[in-house]
Automatic annotation (TrEMBL):
GO terms for molecular function: O-phospho-L-serine:2-oxoglutarate aminotransferase activity; pyridoxal phosphate binding. GO terms for biological process: L-serine biosynthetic process; pyridoxine biosynthetic process. It is an enzyme of class 2 (transferase). Belongs to the class-V pyridoxal-phosphate-dependent aminotransferase family. SerC subfamily. It catalyses: 4-(phosphooxy)-L-threonine + 2-oxoglutarate = (R)-3-hydroxy-2-oxo-4-phosphooxybutanoate + L-glutamate; O-phospho-L-serine + 2-oxoglutarate = 3-phosphooxypyruvate + L-glutamate. This is Phosphoserine aminotransferase. L-glutamate binds at R42. The keyword Cytoplasm applies.
């Protein structure tokens, strides 16, 4: 068996060691005679798995004690709807910065519940840059300010935390969490679907300053209430236990590899390799994002025409490089370089890019 390098944007590549451990434990977890996915979420075995995953995630991201960590079904998009329901009064304004596709999704989910104010919009510039903080028109009475830390499709990433004063900053970290240190204390809330950088699809992580959980928000069911999930250790109902277990294995692997400082180093190295291959191609490959905000996680790039693009996708697949077709919203090619992608994978991609250009350029 040979495993390909998988550049898929999500669900995405997982560490081989994690998959192997899950495989080894599939039929009999820890000698109990059953798989972890067959056990009650309220039993000592799974409660242990869940608590260890949280403790390790807290260690990995240096999450302060005054933040709750929630493990939620429903992915990142569900959180985008829960934010206004939990933290904004009916009719209150919430500020949104638009930097690409996922900022728009966040707004679409929030609009039924809150007065969305777009404080800055990168679309007129083709989402090639993040509108400078000095140009944001923040509302003084906003419930929160929402940003997308990394735009998975457009390939733009904040390289510093924007200062938004006393209004809590909420950030969608779905595609960049744990790829480097995060100063959690600068945020009111961080959320991330796990399937890019934290493990499998089917579970999302929410890191929220506990005092925010006291906000009344809007009429909503208990199951949509973050405070209720926090009070019950994310076991208000049956949580996605298999996904939680796999997330726990992935987080543990990241700690063993050296933690977020090490992944920041690897992320810089991988991204530098690919951007260098693009920038030194004499225009054969193009990435149009402003260099200061180029994503380290998702690198969209373009070839001279559609025929070459299709050929690139087909030939790369044959060469054992998967998932390079760009998102339909922007076309072209997209290379996703999450934590589980080794530096050798980025090297293999760059080698293929150079060879492809020699043959077709
Ligand atoms: C993938 C992604 C989402 C959507 O996540 P789901 O789990 O499919 O709801 C939201 N935001 C960003 C930045 C993403 O990359």
């Amino acid at each position: 068996m040979t495993r390909a390098y998988n550049f898929s944007a999500g669900p995405a590549t997982l560490p081989e060691a994690v998959l192997r451990q899950a495989q080894a434990e599939m039929l009999d977890w820890n000698g109990v005679g059953a798989s972890i996915v067959e056990l009650s979420h309220r039993g000592a075995e799974f409660m242990g798995v869940a608590a260890e995953a949280e403790a390790n995630l807290r260690r990995l991201l240096s999450i302060p004690d005054d933040y709750a960590v929630l493990f939620m079904a429903g992915g990142a998009t569900t959180q985008q709807a829960l934010l206004p329901l939990n933290f904004a009064a009916p009719g209150q304004t919430a500020d949104y910065v638009v930097t690409g596709h996922w900022s728009r999704t966040a707004i679409r989910q929030a609009r039924p519940y809150v007065n969305v104010h777009v404080v800055a919009d990168g679309e007129p510039g083709g989402f090639r840059d993040i509108p400078p903080r000095a140009q944001w028109s923040l509302s003084p009475d906003a419930a929160y300010v929402h940003i997308t830390a990394n735009e998975t499709i457009h390939g733009v990433e904040y390289r510093e935390v924007p200062d938004v004063g006393d209004v809590p900053l909420f950030a969608d970290f779905s595609s960049s969490i744990a790829s480097g240190p995060i100063d959690v204390s600068r945020y009111g809330l961080i959320y991330a679907g796990a399937q890019k950088n934290l493990g499998p699809v089917g579970i999302a992580v929410v890191i929220v300053r506990r005092e925010l959980l006291e906000r009344a928000g809007q009429p909503r069911a208990d199951i949509f209430t973050y405070a209720s999930h926090a009070a019950r250790d994310s076991m208000l109902n049956t949580p996605p236990t298999w996904n939680w277990y796999l997330l726990g294995l992935t987080v543990k692997w990241m700690l063993e590899q050296g933690g977020v400082e090490e992944f920041a180093r690897r992320s810089e190295a991988k991204a530098a390799l690919v951007y260098e291959a693009i920038d030194s191609s004499g225009g054969f490959y193009r990435n149009e994002v402003a260099p200061a905000v180029r994503s380290r996680m998702n690198i969209p790039f373009f070839l001279p025409d559609e025929t070459l693009t299709a050929r690139f996708v087909a030939e790369s697949r044959q060469a054992g490089l998967l998932g390079l077709k760009g998102h339909k919203a922007v076309g072209g090619i997209r290379a996703s370089l999450y934590n589980a992608m080794p530096v050798e994978g980025a090297r293999a991609l760059v080698e293929f890019m150079r060879d492809f250009q020699r043959r077709h350029g």
